[in-house]
Amino acid sequence: MNAHPYVGIAEPIRPTEPVVPAGRVAEPMVRFEGLSKVYPAYRDKPDVEALKDIDFAIARGSITGVIGRSGAGKSSLVRLINGLEKPTAGRVIVDGRDISALRGQPLRLAQRSIGMIFQHFNLLSSRTAADNIALPLEIAGWSKADIRARVSELLDLVDIADKHDRYPSELSGGQKQRIGIARALATRPNVLLSDEATSALDPQTTRAILDLLANINRELGVTIILITHEMSVVRQLAKEVVVIDDGRVVERGHVADIFTHPRHPTTQAFLSEALGDAVPVSLASRLVPAPLSVGQAVIRVQLRGTDAGDTLVARLARELSIDVALLSARIDEIGGQHVGSLILGIPGGEAAARQTVAYLAQHHVSSERLGYVS
Ligand SMILES: Nc1ncnc2c1ncn2[C@@H]1O[C@H](COP(=O)(O)OP(=O)(O)OP(=O)(O)O)[C@@H](O)[C@H]1O
C-alpha cells in the first residue's frame, strides 16, 4: 500500500489507544510534549539538534502559523506531526493519539487524517486534475461512483471545476495548488499541514490561496498549520503564531500581540523585513554620520503597536514647533494597531533632534538616529 503523506481515508479513524478520554472538548488538535529531534552524526557531520524541548499545543479548528528561518526546524516539525520522523525525546499527540508511538498500519491510518500541501504541489504529471484528486480515494478503496462524486465536490470547493480534465502542465501555479488542496482534503482530514504552500506563488495568487484556506477552515473546521518563512503569510491568515529559531520556540501567541510587540531578535527581524525598514536608496546615498551646519537629522521611528501612528508626526510637529519632513513611511495594521516605520527629517540642529527623540521616548515610541542630510 502506498504511504504518501497526503493520502486520506473515507471514515474518521477510530483511535486504538486514546490518550485523552473522548468528549474532552478542550483537548487540542496537536500537542508537542518535551519534543526533541536529533539527527545522528553521519560520516564527518556531527549530530544535528534540529528541535529542542518543544512544548506547545494547537487548538482544534485554529489556524496557526509556524514561522522560522531556513534551518530553524520547520520541516522537521512537519515530519514529526505526520509521523514521518520519530522524536528523539518527547511525543506528538495528534487528535488525541500519540503519533510518535504508532508504527505500521495504525501509523498509516493516522497519517491519512492529516492532509498536506506542498510548495511545489507534488502533483502527478501523468494524471489529470481530477485523477490527482482521486488518488488518495483510490488508495483508500472508494468505489468509482463515490470517487467521481467526491472529486466533483472538491473541484467545486476549490473553484476550478472547469479544469477537471487538465493536466498539471496546463495549469497555473495557483490552479495547481488548488488541486493540491483538493487532494489533501479528499478524505476529510482533521488537520491540514501547509508546508510553504504559497512560497512559489506571486503575491496576488498567494492572497487567493490564503483566502481559500480561510474559507476551508471556516466552513469545514479543519485545523490548519501553516509552515512558512514569510511573515506576510502568517499575518494574512493565522490567528496564532509560533516563532522557531535554532530548533526552539522563541515566541508564541496571538499574531497581533507577537508582531506588534516582538521581543525576540528573530521576530523583530521578520517584522523589519516585512515592513521594509530599509532606508530608501536615494536617501541612504546622501546620509552622512556627522551633523551638518545646515540640514536635517534623519531619525527612524519604529511604530510597534501604537494606536497613535496616524497623528504622531502631526502632534510632534505642532507640540515641538518643528517643520518635520516625512522622508519615508511604511505603515501597516496588525490587529487594529499601527506597525511600521517612518523616517523623519528634523531641521534645527542637534537641539531639535534631541527634543524629537525625547518626545518619541515619552510617547513610548522607539527611534534611532540614522545620520544627517543636507
Ligand atoms: N534528515 C536529516 N539529517 C540530518 N540533518 C537534518 C535532516 N533534516 C534536517 N536536518 C538538519 O536539521 C536542521 C533543521 O532542518 P529543517 O529542514 O527542519 O529546517 P527548516 O526550518 O525546515 O529549513 P528550510 O526552511 O530551509 O527547509 C538543519 O540544520 C538541517 O540541516
From TrEMBL:
Pfam families tied to this protein: ABC_tran, NIL
UniProt KW keywords: Amino-acid transport, ATP-binding, Cell membrane, Membrane, Nucleotide-binding, Translocase, Transport
Domain ABC transporter: 30-271
Entry keyword annotation includes Lipid metabolism: no
PROSITE patterns named among the record's database cross-references: ABC_TRANSPORTER_1 (PS00211), ABC_TRANSPORTER_2 (PS50893)
Family: Belongs to the ABC transporter superfamily.
Name used for this protein in its record: Methionine ABC transporter ATP-binding protein
InterPro entries the record matches: AAA+_ATPase, ABC_transporter-like_ATP-bd, ABC_transporter-like_CS, ACT-like_dom_sf, MetN_ABC, MetN_ABC_transporter-like, NIL_domain, P-loop_NTPase
Described purpose of this protein according to its UniProt entry: Involved in beta-(1-->2)glucan export. Transmembrane domains (TMD) form a pore in the inner membrane and the ATP-binding domain (NBD) is responsible for energy generation.
Superkingdom in the source lineage: Bacteria
GO molecular function: ATP binding
